[in-house]
Amino acid sequence: MVRWLNDRLRRLPVWAVWLGGLIPLALLVWDTFTGGLGIDPVRDIEFRLGRTALYFLIASLGVTPLLRLSRISLMRFRRALGLLCFTYAVLHVLAWLSMDMGFLWAQMAKDIVKRPYLLFGMTAFLLLLPLALSSNNLSLRRMGAQAWRRLHRLVYLAAPLVALHWIWSLKTFPVEPLLWLAVILALLALRLAVPRPLRRGGLRGSGKEMA
Ligand code: HEM
Question: Does the entry feature the keyword Electron transport, yes or no (predicted)?
């Protein structure tokens, strides 16, 4: 069964993941131009972009535990999932900068004082930035596998920060983000608890295969 699934997954092109991953963006654009957003359209746009970024972040975190626990391999798609997360995070930040703040520094400083949870989001974004920039084979070759893998562990810091960013932004009891925080912590625990299988022939080639 696992072999059958992995065979099917091997035939799925990475661009199909990109295509699927951009559907939430297409729906958001559609809703923006057809009046499908809520009573506060700017917040709606920010929320949807932020949430989608978080979902892709969690999906990319789930790839290694899934492989180690079930041998189902989504490794070929991990880079796309990570970059999709970053794409939505950039759009989320741009939405805040442009529609909320009008690119005004003074306004931004005031907003950060008023809503300190933004600092969690900013820190998470700064942690994700080097990961996105080094998500290519050239960086992997230049940095070497060990350093590259060490750098990419930053994702385990960024993900809980995003959940805290969401939790702190709410005035009501944060049921949903707490659930996502639990998922993130469970994925982190699994990563630490389930050892990496020994490879025959050492590390080969690209970051796509690195668990
Ligand atoms: C410079 C960095 C960031 C800024 C300025 C920022 C800004 C914001 C703002 C203004 C909100 C709306 C809060 C509200 O009005 O109640 C928000 C919510 C949110 N942000 Fe961020 N954010 C940043 C980084 C991130 C990153 C990197 C992610 C994900 C990878 C993220 C995910 C979320 C989520 C999931 C929400 C909650 C959405 C909801 O309530 O439905 N943010 N952020």
Answer: yes
- The C-alpha atoms of residue 108 and residue 39 are separated, in whole angstroms, by 23
**Domain of 55?**
2-193
The DSSP annotation for 142-175 comes to: HH-HHHHHHHHTTHHHHHHHHHHHHHHH-SS--H
Question: What pLDDT is attached to residue 210?
Answer: 52
Structure tokens at 60: 């990319």
pLDDT of 106 over the 90 cut: yes
- CA of 28 relative to ligand 1 center, distance in Å: 16
Pick the residue whose CA is nearest to atom 22 on ligand 1.
121
Mean pLDDT of 1-6: 94
Asked if the structure places residue 211 within a domain, the reply is: no
Predicted TM-score (pTM) of this structure: 0.93
Residue 24 CA to ligand 1 center (angstroms) comes to 16
| Distance from the alpha carbon of residue 164 to the mean position of ligand 1, in angstroms | 10
Sign of CA dihedral 130, 160, 53, 6: positive
pLDDT in tens, 135-173: 999 999 999 999 999 999 999 999 999 999 999 999 999
Residue 209 lies in a domain: no
6: in domain: yes
Predicted confidence at residue 193, as pLDDT, reads 85
Within a domain: residue 130?
yes
